[in-house]
Amino acid sequence: MNKEEFLKKLEELLSDVDAAERSEAIHYYQEYFQDSEKAEEDVIKELGSPQEVAHSIREELAEKEIVLAGTVAGENAGGESQEAEQSKEAGWQTAGSFSANSDASQQSSSQEKEKKSMEPWVVVLIILAVIFVGIPVGLPLLGSALTLIVGIIGAMLGLVVAGAICFVVFGLAAVICFVVSIMKLVAAPLAGVIILGISLLLLGLCFLSALITWKMCSVVIPACVRGVVYLCRLPFRKNQEATV
Amino acid sequence: MVFNTGAALLDAIVLAVVSKEEGGTYGYKITQQVRQVIELSESTLYPVLRRLQKYGFLEVYDMECGGRNRRYYKLTMSGTTQLAMYRREWKEYAGKINGMFEGGAIYE
Description:
The complex is a heterodimer. Chain A has 2 domains: 3-90, no CATH class; 119-243. Chain A has helices at 3-13, 19-35, 40-47, 50-70, 79-88, 97-116, 120-187, 189-243. Residues 71-114 of chain A have low confidence and may be disordered. By secondary structure, chain A is mainly alpha-helical. The radius of gyration of chain A is 39 Å and the shape is elongated. In chain A, 86% of the residues lie in helices and 0% in strands. Chain B is α+β, with helices and mostly antiparallel strands. Helix content of chain B is 56%, strand content 17%. Chain B has 4 helices and 3 strands. In chain B, a hairpin with a 2-residue loop joins strand 2 (58-65) and strand 3.
């Protein structure tokens, strides 16, 4: 649809509206197209269909008549007419989130009603199904999942402990090597320098293991804990959503 | 935006936007400026402008611009009064709401 078609359609749709009102609207939208720097198609996309545009104009006209009939005049639409307007304003809901929310809650409440009105034998059937299918299948699954989690936590703790041990051992070795190298430096300079180098290398390893341990403690483990907590909460959260 | 913009507030915003331009402003520009503050479908604005015009708050005049006539809107005297009223009302309303949201207990 291009601009001409849009305006023509709009004119058609407003054919039963007062002629002056109609030409005013057409004039406005004609200018709107001219003033917009965007392509015609984009302007039309933003405006919506001619039906929507016509509807908004028609609605406005109808509303105005009510307001004008209900109050003195349009000149001072201060107190009274404004209140009248506010009380019946249904349009211009610029955001749908409120209404969307209420829709959602309505839906869930109707779901709840359905749940409540379930036949007793269905409930019994569900319980039986849970007992005969849920226990033999669910328990081992749950068990293995728990084992897996415990295993992962164990591995993490092991890594932390290993890191700590490495830190201590490398640190001690580095200090010992350093002391030895200082003593050797005078008697056998070459060996002394080599041992000094080894001690520096050990010091580096010591720092590295300290860093790894630190990261494990501060990042990996808290993340795991959060994950586990999230998993544990999951069933409860679903319940909450269902009851709300 | 989760809050609705009612007819009165929309009127007030449009009047405020138009009042910013000394020599008046035109439909497309008003739409774009209103859309900077509230979400609003592009087709909502024409009816509002028309209504404000009928109430006598806005007046229109055609002015030559780039080889064609363009329709400009500007506030009338009563439009200016109306806008002042809206400003006052809004200040009071927003003040109350802010007090409720940010202030302490409101028990008497």
